[in-house]
Amino acid sequence: MSSQDIPEENLPAEQEHAHGAVSVADEKNPFADPGLPPHEHRIQDIDERAAKRSERVVALLFTVSMLATVGFIASYLAIPHDKSIFVFPIGHISALNFALGLTLGAALFCIGAGAVHWARTLMSDVEMADERHAIEAPPELKAKVMADFRQGAEESGLGRRKLIRNTMFGALTLMPLSAVFLLGGLGPAPKSKLRHTMWAKGKRLVNMNTNQPLRPEDVMVGSLTFAKPDGLEETNEDFQNEIAKAALMIVRLQPGNIKDKRELDWSHEGIVAFSKICTHVGCPISLYEQQTHHVLCPCHQSTFDLSDGARVIFGPAGHALPQLRIGVDSDGYLQALGDFEEPVGPAFWERG
Ligand code: FES
């Protein structure tokens, strides 16, 4: 049914908008402005029962969106992450990912489809033409915008069609809950784990190559030894995480060559232990110049002076390598006297 078939008195009152030709061609404007075509009323404009049907469809879509969001949360809580299912034609996929994608997609689609159906069938579809104006808005224009806004709100039926309004607010309120639950999938917060290493008072220094605890006599002047905490084995599940923080460089210097007082206090008979993790962006340092006591990071050539608190003497690293305070236990093995006093690796962690 089109508006031509409807008796004139049943049609909604036309609003003040131009239809048909609005100007004729003349010398200045050789092309006539054809104006807007005649407005066609929709079935919902002239039949309240059709409008009600559309209203129910919109409400149904918003309600399905709410159910899909609840389904998303339920899937997240109920489906084990290692369960897989067969889905034709994709094959075997994670049941959890499939359910999350399906429910989240349905929730978003139904909100969008509901809004589109609402706009196409129930909101005013009267064609409007407006003049372009200067960018700065004079007070009268602002007043007009506000009036248009109020008119738009009225025409959308937001106040009148409470079923749509309530289900839409419900769908939009539940939707962000999906994001909250997704955050849970990132795993537990690291808390202070990134600020501490495995080193603790009494933890022996173990040679990374031989896997044997180190004695002072194992560390020769001029040699570079890499060490790890006793108990940290490659078979440990978190070996890579822990070694990335706890790896040590051990060198023996003549105590008289140590310029930094704290370094000397934290050493044992000239043996010093520094973090092997570069303070630039975390590469493992591995090059040692025994004559100068400099260590060099192979990534961007930051150079640290191990005889002077491992301060940076060249390159992009921002600060000295952290030193581990060491001593000897009752059996004569090198041991840590505590954890590092500052975060190892890039300076990022100092800002947290
Ligand atoms: S990571 Fe060592 S200098 Fe860049």
Keywords:
binds FE2/S2 (inorganic) cluster, 2Fe-2S, 2 domains, 4-stranded antiparallel β-sheet, 5-stranded antiparallel β-sheet, Rieske Iron-sulfur Protein, membrane, alpha+beta, transmembrane helix, disulfide bond, 352 residues, elongated, iron
> What is the string of helix and strand elements?
HHEEHHHHEEHEHEEEEEEEEH
Strand element count: 13
The N- and C-terminal alpha carbons lie at a distance of: 67 Å
Helix tally equals 9
Given helix and strand content, the structural type is alpha+beta
Total domains: 2
Strand fraction equals 5-15%
> How would you describe the shape?
elongated
Question: If you average the pLDDT, what whole number results?
Answer: 87
The level of helicity is: 25-40%
C-alpha-based Rg, rounded: 37 Å
Largest sheet: 5 strands, antiparallel
Are there runs of 5+ residues with pLDDT below 50, and where?
Answer: none
What ligands are attached or bound here? FE2/S2 (inorganic) cluster
Order of strands across the main sheet: 3-4-5-6-11
Please explain how this structure is put together.
This is Cytochrome bc1 complex Rieske iron-sulfur subunit. This protein is of the alpha+beta class and about 350 residues long. The protein has 2 domains: about 180 residues, no CATH class; about 160 residues, 3-layer Sandwich (Rieske Iron-sulfur Protein), CATH 2.102.10.10. About 35% of the residues lie in helices and about 15% in strands. It is built from 9 helices and 13 strands. The strands form 4 sheets. The protein has a 5-stranded antiparallel beta sheet. Strands 7-8-9-10 form a 4-stranded antiparallel beta sheet, with no helix packed on it. It has a two-stranded antiparallel sheet with strand order 1-2. Strand 9 and strand 10 form a beta hairpin. The longest helix has about 30 residues. Bound molecules: FE2/S2 (inorganic) cluster (FES). FE2/S2 (inorganic) cluster (FES) binds next to loops.
